[in-house]
Design a protein that fits this description.
The strands form five sheets. Strands 1, 2, 3, 4, 6, 7 and 8 form a seven-stranded mixed beta sheet that branches. A four-stranded antiparallel beta sheet has the order 14-13-17-18, with no helix packed on it. It is 26% helix and 29% strand. It is elongated, with a radius of gyration of 22 Å. The longest helix has 18 residues. It has two domains: 118 residues, OB fold (Dihydrolipoamide Acetyltransferase, E2P); 79 residues, Sandwich (Immunoglobulin-like). The chain is an alpha+beta fold and 237 residues long. The chain contains five helices and 18 strands.
Length: 237
């Protein structure tokens, strides 16, 4: 029996069993829903490094966050994802909620058996982002970020600013432990999501400066970057 015919038959049986209140309805319905946790689609275009479009529907890549328009490495992330998936048939795997607050479909994207979401993080085009909590691929995403840091590529490339060796984060403050003052103009600190705080001016020797940052959408990570986008600090709060 073809898959489509099986689905129709199962739906008819579900309706029938509702009418007669069979006890095994719940398990049959659960099996049916689980069979719909993946789908194959053709990717028409890429909006940015974590959003793609298929058949007019926007699909947000789960578990990652990539630079927004106008941010450091935005174009590189978008172009990398474009090369990976545009014009290709991919598989979507749904884990947790199917849509976000912007009505975008939430999914992990697979091409030729590879988890594209994980690949984006491993190649330094985004960071992991566990907005709705951890799932089956969270460990893979964290390992991908660790690999990126080890390779020091793209968003994981270390800052070349001399102050990056002695400026760090303590609590909700940036601290200058250098023996000299540091220009922190346009330095940014952010969590895993979109919210970020922009520093300006000079940080004197021994000076600490508080930052006001909403970290409610971050699972515990902080990223401090210099004015050129180089990674100064990554850690947990």
């Amino acid at each position: 029996m073809k898959k489509r015919e099986y689905k129709i038959l199962l739906i008819v049986l579900v309706v029938f069993f509702i009418a007669i209140n069979y006890s095994f309805l719940d398990s049959s319905l659960e099996d049916f829903l689980e069979s719909e946790q993946t789908s194959k689609v053709l990717i028409e275009r890429v909006i940015d490094g974590d959003t793609i479009v298929s058949n007019g529907t926007s699909i947000r890549l789960l578990g990652i966050n990539t630079p927004e328009h106008g941010e450091f490495f935005y174009e590189e992330a978008r172009d990398f994802l474009d090369d990976l998936v545009t014009g290709k048939n991919v598989s979507l795997e749904f884990v947790g909620p199917r849509e976000d607050k912007y009505f975008r479909t939430l999914a992990y994207v697979f091409f030729n058996g590879e988890n594209v979401n994980v690949r984006m993080v491993e190649e330094g085009f985004g960071n992991f982002y566990f907005y709705d909590g951890r799932d089956k691929y969270s460990d893979d995403l964290e390992n991908a970020w660790a690999s990126c840091l080890e390779k020091e590529i793209n968003l994981c490339e270390k800052s070349e600013d001399v102050c990056s060796e002695c400026v760090g984060i303590s609590g909700n403050s940036i601290v200058n432990s250098c023996s000299f003052s540091c220009d922190v103009e346009d330095w940014t600190i952010k969590g895993e999501g979109r919210e970020k705080f922009l520093f300006n001016g000079t940080l004197e020797v021994g000076e600490s400066r508080e930052f006001d940052l909403d970290l409610s959408d971050s699972s515990g990570s902080l990223f401090l970057r210099d004015g050129e986008g180089g990674l100064v600090y990554f850690g947990r709060f």
